[in-house]
Amino acid sequence: MSELLITQHDRVLLLTLNRPQARNALNNALLLQLAEALEAAAQDADIGACVITGDERFFAAGADLNEMADNDLVATLNDTRPQLWARIDACKKPLIAAVNGYALGAGCELALLCDIVMAGDNARFGLPEITLGIMPGAGGTQRLIRSVGKSLASKMVLSGESIDAQRALQAGLVSDICPPALTVEYAVKLATTVAGRSPLALQAAKQALRQSQEVSLHAGLQLERQLFTLLAATDDRAEGIAAFREKRTPTFKGR
């Protein structure tokens, strides 16, 4: 049985974590499959956006502790895991997480890595690593504090306590809440809308949004203007403006 189910819905790639016996815990093999699927999608002009999901009870309940348990300092230093996370993060196409149930530890970190998070009303987000004598190690401390702010991020990381979907919405961690049975459907619908936009504009906008969390406002504004200017040379920009003037739906070609 494959640990990652891959289906395509029009221009949307749906990636479903499929380790039910391990509550979708993210081991290195699954992270590798996810990285490879996203890298293939990045090269596929027929895919405009990707959705990552789990099942109705578990998005992903964390890292695979059985895999990590015997890793000493040297093994941890030489672990390929950071490179796998970096490959997933490098995806240039929009990533939407459709989260039902528990997104804990590495599962929460995977959701935080995505550009948009949609949650079922049964979702819970948490970084419980502190209860195991460790701490988040795949971006949890850095992305969470940028998402929800210092006070709530510190409470979650230092106590190990999780938050529900409503609190996550209030804090800005998720964009929408829906019934669990509809989470994937709504995420694919949003991804379909996103995938209908200009591929070049999407890539540029995602880059600018990501950089906003890493550079000063001045540097971010400069990058935004540079990317805006570069898009002026694309066929898609001409098509978008022409379609607006002619009151029709644009046909973007990624050129």
Describe this entry's structure for a reader.
Keywords: Lyase. This is Probable enoyl-CoA hydratase echA8. It is an enzyme of class 4 (lyase). GO terms for molecular function: enoyl-CoA hydratase activity. The protein contains twelve helices and ten strands. The longest helix is centred in the first third of the chain and has 15 residues, at 28-42. The N and C termini lie far apart (39 Å). With 255 residues, the chain is an alpha/beta fold. α1 (28-42) runs parallel beside α4 (81-89), α5 (106-113) packs across α6 (140-148) and α6 (140-148) packs antiparallel against α7. The mean pLDDT is 93. The strands form two sheets. Strands 1-2-3-5-7-10 form a six-stranded mixed β-sheet, sandwiched between helices. Strands 4-6-8-9 form a four-stranded mixed β-sheet.
TL;DR of this structure?
47% of the residues lie in helices and 16% in strands.
